[in-house]
Write a structure and sequence with these properties.
Length: 178
């Protein structure tokens, strides 16, 4: 199933493949390599719940009136209007020089992208769009979003090679409201 090219599948089959991979891979991580192929190892589960029916139905109900877009964040928020709500969850800025994982896709998400995202956050604010963003609690992110409400939180980590790496990590929630 990991090797199946999702572009050869129907929408339903592609969704089923995604759920299967998400429920059976290492800690539910979804990541692709530079060729766009899914590359997360299998998880070590005895009896995974591959089809959590009630959770899927609940998600279906919650998303029934939502519009989901696939694309760069610029195109995804282009039509946002005053009163709309946009939540941004980019690949987080590295918290140290050795923490350089910045992408879940074939394209990296580096400093230029972080800066462009902050600019878009400001533009959306000027248009009256309500925005919320999560990211690493780093000096860079605090500088990029200076002037907005920034709340520091400790977020648990479920994905790490060691128990030590699963300790809570500092993150920020940035909002342009309340």
């Amino acid at each position: 199933m990991r090797a199946v090219d999702p572009t050869t599948l129907s929408a339903v089959e592609s969704a089923a493949r995604f759920v299967f991979l998400n429920r059976s891979c290492f800690n539910g991580l979804y990541r692709v390599n530079k060729s766009g192929q899914f590359n997360v190892p299998f998880g070590k589960y005895t009896n995974p719940n591959l089809c959590p029916v009630e959770r899927l139905r609940g998600a279906s109900r919650a998303l029934a009136s939502a519009e989901i877009r696939l694309g760069d964040f610029d195109s995804s928020v282009a039509a946002a209007r005053a009163g709309d709500f946009v939540y941004m969850d980019p690949p987080y800025a590295p918290i140290s020089p050795t923490a350089s994982f910045t992408s879940y896709t074939a394209a990296d998400f580096g400093l230029a992208d972080q800066t462009r995202l902050a600019e878009r956050f400001r533009e959306l604010t000027e248009r009256g769009v309500l925005c919320m963003l999560s990211n690493s609690d780093t000096p860079l992110i605090r500088e990029l979003y200076q002037g907005f409400r920034i709340d520091g939180i400790l977020a648990p980590r479920a994905i790490s090679r060691s128990a030590e790496g699963r300790r809570p990590v500092g993150e920020v929630i940035v909002r342009n409201y309340g």
